[in-house]
């Protein structure tokens, strides 16, 4: 979204009371932006292959039912990696054939459910594959089944998010001694294995390295098919991981750039013989989300101005715990929602949580903030407010989608803010007395008075 459009959305949110006395923090999603990204993704791959492509949105990037329903309406599917994510995708109305189930820790029950539904499954390791051997032998399934391959091409700039390192916990390693030959045999022996899957990481990966992994998966598919003497592997799932630019408005790199790079690097994968699955998350939603928070107080310590706001670790967990890897742009508005002007002053933008590191930004040059002002944390649509962190029992924030029409900007509720009663219920209120000592026959027998009588 451009800054003009964002400014209009912030003003409308303030005018329409989304940031009222009871709601000092709220999150906004740009509906037109989400649709545009979905369309850009589809167009980018349609331009480089005539084969079918399922774009399965990675649910963990924005586990919100209305967002999945919107993306589904825009022609996308969903990638789920837990029973919760699978349930969210189904609640959004996605049919099983539009859903892919990944996860390195699928239980037998989860696998059985996925195969009964017909959801695509990517097996992570030999033990999971043994369970699939038993399940596919016991009952027929419509589920396409694949192998997740770790191409071991190396990591990116963020270690915790790099999944294609030599010792990554994900997938079947490809370059360990003997691994490749064993994988080919594993696939050839199982006619129901029709897919290969690779996902090299998430943010911080160089596009060339991601392409290395896709190429490795393609070459393995070719080798398996040659060994099987038929087109056994018919689909390659290339994962997600397109990095997002958090430094400006620009959507860079674009889906088009990545699709063109892949088509140039791995032409055989795009000549129509292979169907594709993609699993983009962050790059579809990050730039369309915004957290708005009121400044409650301003103060100064050690010569540093500090604005204490209501947005911190609960909505921007990664930024707070790893600020170097996850810097966020912050925009400043006054109490009426108008952009705050004035000379930039280095100041901390702090959150409400009770630990010193709860900062959205440190020494950030911004017009000096005042109590009642509104700060906006930009590009927070992925892996931020949607994946709430419950520290200090801070409530999950409300999420509103916004659209601009002839009559101005209107909002639709995506998720309500968590009410105090819900926090209390989740804190075990229904079991209040569970840990208190309770009188019982045994308790009376062990009464000191009894032993004295004995
Ligand atoms: C997290 C994840 C994705 C999405 O990654 P993004 O960086 O958000 O695009 C896709 N596939 C798998 C298997 C993942 O774990």
Structural write-up:
- The structure is a single chain.
- This protein has 454 residues and is of the alpha/beta class.
- The chain folds into 2 domains: 3-27 and 286-425, Beta Barrel (Lyase, Ornithine Decarboxylase, Chain A, domain 1), CATH 2.40.37.10; 31-284, TIM Barrel (Alpha-Beta Barrel).
- The protein has helices spanning 3-15, 31-46, 65-73, 83-91, 108-117, 126-138, 179-188, 207-228, 255-265, 282-285, 317-321, 420-426, 441-445, 448-453, and strands at 25-30, 53-58, 77-80, 99-101, 120-123, 145-150, 172-173, 193-197, 235-237, 275-278, 289-301, 304-309, 330-333, 344-350, 359-367, 374-378, 398-405, 408-415.
- The longest helix is centred in the middle third of the chain and has 22 residues, at 207-228.
- It is globular and about 70 Å long.
- It starts with a helix and ends with a helix.
- The model has no long low-confidence stretch (mean pLDDT 94).
- Bound molecules: pyridoxal-5'-phosphate.
- The site of pyridoxal-5'-phosphate has 18 residues, from helix 10.
Topology:
Blueprint: H1 3-15, E1 25-30, H2 31-46, E2 53-58, H3 65-73, E3 77-80, H4 83-91, E4 99-101, H5 108-117, E5 120-123, H6 126-138, E6 145-150, E7 172-173, H7 179-188, E8 193-197, H8 207-228, E9 235-237, H9 255-265, E10 275-278, H10 282-285, E11 289-301, E12 304-309, H11 317-321, E13 330-333, E14 344-350, E15 359-367, E16 374-378, E17 398-405, E18 408-415, H12 420-426, H13 441-445, H14 448-453
Parallel strand pairs: 1-17, 2-3, 2-10, 3-4, 4-5, 5-6, 6-7, 6-8, 8-9, 9-10, 12-14
Antiparallel strand pairs: 1-11, 11-12, 11-16, 13-16, 14-15, 17-18
